């Protein structure tokens, strides 16, 4: 699958902290080069670059783009995609809802994304395609969301015009890929399709808009929402909404039904170890008494409401990115099967060519799941993808 210049696999560098150009280079030197040495010593390796707004400004204002391109080429690192979801410090002590700011209704989000386009356009090989994932408009607001959706659509259409001009100038087609996430304004496949059909496609020629605005399909997010991978891909295809990038990631799942009373208590205790203060862990619960498709904003809220008498027929999935090579750990499962299903169907149901391993939560995993060497853990994930797809050691 990843044995040509068309399909590219990389890992997302949002796993590394850093708010300026210097720290970005330091992280790539320390980690990305070490990952490459393990999984692709003889060929270029894909990198999904994350630059917060401060770092993006640093790169542009100090004319680092061409130097950055040369630096990457010397090390055999190929930036083909960027993560434009976290605008600010993704590794501050508490991130939670801050990661959804600014929304797509605010000019800061548009300005940031344009800066990423300018940088990526300078890093891509001649006439290569580029992708930038972005947030699904924002988090719902008590004041109402329809105006936010309308304002966001207007800014995204302005971005389409900008991207078309950039392609005419540089030869690079760079598309912005909106990433559904549980609890956000756009968190399901149907919601995403409705946004395209009701807010985006009416504003211009559909084929033109679909060239530059696409979807970033995060496997973990869809799994949390209980969506089947093949059905998601079919729905996007049938609606004329293109998948521009796939983020390969696993959620945590727990089915209490096969467990006895003692095991259920132990399973809850194990799940509770995934509570941590930095990131939001939206949790979906299916249960006859609590409700089916009941989404809690964060894991602690779900654990507070679940009672012992609810457990006999309860299943739960939580937004916590765990390593791709995990299938089961203790009483918990990873949604690894969803990743495999996506990889099995993606080529038949989509023209997507960009794939990104995105496990950013290594440093907040329970102690027994952490790794001493981060580069080794990332390399093990990428090798797992290569093995599953029968690619061997070629990743681009």
Helix content: 40-55%
CATH class of the largest domain: Alpha Beta
Measured between the Cα atoms of the first and last residue, the distance is 9 Å
Strand order of the largest sheet: 1-2-3-4-5-6-7-14
Summarize this, please?
By secondary structure, the chain is of the alpha/beta class.
Provide a descriptive summary of the structure in words:
- There is one protein chain.
- The chain is of the alpha/beta class.
- It has two domains: 8-250 and 323-388, Divalent-metal-dependent TIM barrel enzymes (TIM Barrel, Alpha-Beta Barrel), CATH 3.20.20; 254-317, no CATH class.
- It has 13 helices and 14 strands.
- Helix 6 runs parallel beside helix 9.
- The longest helix is centred in the middle third of the chain and has 25 residues, at 146-170.
- It is globular, with a radius of gyration of 20 Å.
- The model has no long low-confidence stretch (mean pLDDT 95).
């Amino acid at each position: 699958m990843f044995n040509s210049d068309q399909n590219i696999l990389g890992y997302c560098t949002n796993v590394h902290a850093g708010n300026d150009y210097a720290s970005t280079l330091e992280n790539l030197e320390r980690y990305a080069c070490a990952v490459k040495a393990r999984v692709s010593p003889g060929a270029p390796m894909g990198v999904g670059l994350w630059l917060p707004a401060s770092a993006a400004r640093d790169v542009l204002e100090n004319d680092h783009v061409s130097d950055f391109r040369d630096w990457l080429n010397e090390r055999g690192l190929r930036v083909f995609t960027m993560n434009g979801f976290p605008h600010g410090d993704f590794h501050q002590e508490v991130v939670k809802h801050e990661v959804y700011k600014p929304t797509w209704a605010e000019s800061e989000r548009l300005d940031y994304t344009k800066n990423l386009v300018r940088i990526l356009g300078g890093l891509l090989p001649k006439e290569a395609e580029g992708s930038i994932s972005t947030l699904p408009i924002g988090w719902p607001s008590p004041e109402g969301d329809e105006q936010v959706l309308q304002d966001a659509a207007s800014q995204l259409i302005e971005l389409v015009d900008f991207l078309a001009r950039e392609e005419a100038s540089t030869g690079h087609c760079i598309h912005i890929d909106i990433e559904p996430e549980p609890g956000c304004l756009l968190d399901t496949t149907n919601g995403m399709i409705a946004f395209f059909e009701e807010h985006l496609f009416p504003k211009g020629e559909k084929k033109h808009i679909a060239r530059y605005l696409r979807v970033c399909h995060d496997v973990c997010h869809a799994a949390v929402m209980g969506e089947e991978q093949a059905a998601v891909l079919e729905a996007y295809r049938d609606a004329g909404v293109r998948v521009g990038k796939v983020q390969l990631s696993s959620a945590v799942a727990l089915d209490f039904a096969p467990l006895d009373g003692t095991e259920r208590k132990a399973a809850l205790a194990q799940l509770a170890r995934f509570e941590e203060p930095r990131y939001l862990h939206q949790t979906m619960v299916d249960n006859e008494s609590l409700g089916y498709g009941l989404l809690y904003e964060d894991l602690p809220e779900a654990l507070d409401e679940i009672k012992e008498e609810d457990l006999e027929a309860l299943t739960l999935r939580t937004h916590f990115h765990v390593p791709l090579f995990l299938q089961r750990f203790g009483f918990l499962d990873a949604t690894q099967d969803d990743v495999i299903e996506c990889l099995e169907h993606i080529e038949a149901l989509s023209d997507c060519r960009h794939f990104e391993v995105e496990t950013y939560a290594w440093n907040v995993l329970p102690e027994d799941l952490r790794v001493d060497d981060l580069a080794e853990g990332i390399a093990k994930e990428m090798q797992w993808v290569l093995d599953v797809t029968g690619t061997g050691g070629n990743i681009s």
